[in-house]
Amino acid sequence: MAKVLLLQGNQACAEGAIAAGVTFFAGYPITPSTEIAEIMAKRLPEVGGKFIQMEDEIAGIGAIVGASLTGKKVLTATSGPGFSLKQEFIGYATIAEVPIVIANVQRVGPSTGQPTAPAQGDMMQARWGTHGDHPVIALTPASVPECFTLTIKAYELSEKYRMPVLLMLDEIIGHMREKIEIPDYDTIEKPVRKGPRVGPSEFKAYEPDSDGVPPMADFGTGYRYHVTGLVHDETGFPNGSAAATEKLLKRLHDKVERDIDKITMYEEYKLDDAEIAIVTYGGTARSAYAAIDMAREEGIKVGMFRLISVWPFPEKEIAQLAEKVKVIVVPELNYGQMVGEVKKAAEGKVPVKPMSKYDSEPISPKELLAFVKNL
Amino acid sequence: MEKLIEKYYRPRLPHIWCPGCGNGIVTSSIIKAIDKLGLDQDKTVIVSGIGCSSRASGYLNFDTVHSLHGRALPVATGIKLADPELNVIVITGDGDGTAIGGNHFIHTARRNINLTVILFNNNIYGMTGGQYSPLTPTDSKATTAPYGTLERAFDIAELAKAAGATYVARGTAFHANMLVDVIAKGISHDGFSLIEAVTQCPIYFGRQNKKGDASTMLKTQRDHAVTVEAAKKLSPEQLEGKFKIGVLHQSEAPEYTKQYQGIIDRAQKGAK
């Protein structure tokens, strides 16, 4: 039965994972993401799933990679320093095409930084944190209900494209409490992994379908295949040739790029007649709604383009936005990260103004309003 | 009878190991142990890290993971906990398992999860060309220790035991039949098992340290290994410079995945 609850973003993320059919969590405690682990420790055994607190952040993501190979939907959660430690396995899961979901509840960095204060300073680490060229899918919820729905969405994308999906919360969203209507989990469609359509003797573990994604066999079902972080060919075994290297890297990128319109998610708020566009995401978007409403009362034509999927970056949509408005403002809780992407996509057609805040406090609606009025 | 090589090896030979390397002997000992126990090939998973020994996973006909440097144990833990019906065997080396993977090693032992770890100990980083590892003996030459190593080596069997491993054994490439036996016992043991397999690296360890060719290094294993039974009759002076082989430690403790099933049963009873 559907129910109405008062939940924290971290709680909604954990419940979204349960609703999506997650049965395995491994992680390590770290502020401000710890509630996700705590809730999973209690909830997973209730639904027959498994929780394990590992010896470190690396082991947390390593264990979910292993569990995913047995066909389970898996989650780990972390923040700042832990996100740095997880980068190596994010690259592994990308090249070995193992579906995993990582929630990163952002706090002030670098290093230990400000563990309990919000930031949006990991946006570029989400894109480029693991070494080498690789595609990325990252989502940024801006409300408690969206933590729930985007977590489910993360599994849909992760299973479909066989890759890590990053849930980029920030401390504002992770710890904010809000009303949320939660549907009966039985009514939620569980994302399904595409399995092999041929028997073990014909199976090539990394031979893609026309969508660029190879069907994935569960360990223990007789397919006996090899998983490696080395460059490999469609057999799954290492292949050091230039041709195999180019082919694999291209396919990993293509499977995401060809579907970018399906993956891209955004919200437009009072943007129809806007002369000023605020492009933002996550917790900062909360202040933008209020600032826009206040500005509109004063007759300022401002609206918001809220990024929901931040990676792959919606270049096409931002380019179109740059044709429509006179100026773009990018408020974010960092020294200026996504603003660079917005500038790149706007191609100089319109001024793009960063509004960077990195003092550990959120951007208030009044601050944003004042910034807009001073343009 | 189907030959072991046809049943258990993928048609991917020759392997990448150097002439005289002992890794082939250790790998075949694992296969013989699996065959001896009659494990279901479809329900057996081999997980390795990165390094010379960790390349073994790619040659073996099971579900196999060649994971990250030092990280075989977390991946294996995830597989075993997610599906306890699977037999999970871990192949690692001295650098992979005890340096970069050292933290995972002690904690996986502490948890007593039913994994069987075969640690190929060749006393050196071979894949990168001969740097010293935590199991390189003191005052050895390595490319990163041109004046000799200062550090003391771990006794990995003692470390495993102290960390809570419930089965600890050691074998050598020379004593291949005994190695099969201690690996088979480790796989049968319900808990965390460590088998240290002493193997020769004539190219990157032997050459720098004037240990002779592969056969000389195998003879050195023969001459310095003392079975656990024989060691009982020897004095500490007589054991100086020797190492014990056989089952070094075995104890009973609750196995992690079985204990976790108890948690599920309790949580589900509470929820209803």
From TrEMBL, chain A:
UniProt region (Disordered), positions on chain: 191-211
Coiled coil residues, start to end: none
Gene3D superfamilies, A to Z: 3.40.50.920, 3.40.50.970
Keywords: Oxidoreductase
GO MF annotation terms: oxidoreductase activity
InterPro entries attached to this UniProt entry: 2-oxoacid_oxidoreductase (IPR052368), PFOR_II (IPR033412), Pyrv_Fd/Flavodoxin_OxRdtase_N (IPR002880), THDP-binding (IPR029061), Transketo_C/PFOR_II (IPR009014)
Domain Pyruvate flavodoxin/ferredoxin oxidoreductase pyrimidine binding positions: 15-242
Pyruvate:ferredoxin oxidoreductase core domain span: 274-367
NCBIfam families the record matches: PRK08659.1 (NF006412)
Protein name from the UniProt record: 2-oxoglutarate ferredoxin oxidoreductase subunit alpha
Phylogenetic classification of the source organism: Bacteria, Bacillati, Bacillota, Negativicutes, Selenomonadales
Automatic annotation (TrEMBL), chain B:
GO molecular function per UniProt: oxidoreductase activity, acting on the aldehyde or oxo group of donors, iron-sulfur protein as acceptor; thiamine pyrophosphate binding
Keyword Oxidoreductase among UniProt keywords: yes
Domain of life of the native organism: Bacteria
Residue intervals of the Thiamine pyrophosphate enzyme TPP-binding domain: 50-196
Cross-referenced InterPro entries: 2-oxoacid:Fd_oxidoreductase (IPR051457), THDP-binding (IPR029061), TPP_enzyme_TPP-bd (IPR011766)
Sorted UniProt keywords: Oxidoreductase
Keyword Iron-sulfur: no
Transmembrane segments annotated in the record for this chain: none
Biological process (GO), any one: cellular respiration
Protein name, entry field: 2-oxoglutarate ferredoxin oxidoreductase, beta subunit
Organism (species): Pelosinus propionicus DSM 13327
Lineage of origin: Bacteria, Bacillati, Bacillota, Negativicutes, Selenomonadales
